[in-house]
Amino acid sequence: MAPSVTHVTGTVTGDVEVRFTPDGIAVCRFRLTETPTQWDAAAQTWRDLDPIPYICTAWRNLASNAAESLVDGVNVLAKGRITGVKDGSIYLSVDDLGISLRRRIAYTETSLPSPIAARPVTAPPAPQPAAAPRPATGRPGSPPAWWEHKRASHWS
Fold it and tell me: What pTM did the predictor assign?
């Protein structure tokens, strides 16, 4: 009978260790802690249950990508097969991993902002107000110079 597939959501605890077999196949190992919660009806609140420790193993490209992507404290979603229980930990052979987006943003190689987006933004220079034409006499409300010229020439 084949082992059943399970899904685990938890927090990576500690560093991811990566090694290579004599054939050059990458294998990584990391610890994952799942803290299940339960609704306490009497207190009207959620409470944490005992944490469940997992020791996870991944192979090949998944191992290389996990070693490059995972750090202590990251929440992940893991799909895999339980291969054993020993010393209070569940051993999980991981088939697929994903970073949980519940508490953080994850960028991929194709979704990274361009370097242009990281440049400091400088504000454009403020526009200068246009100079208003000055009346010929310099008094407010006086007619413009061309008006006075036409009037002096008797409107010809």
Answer: 0.66
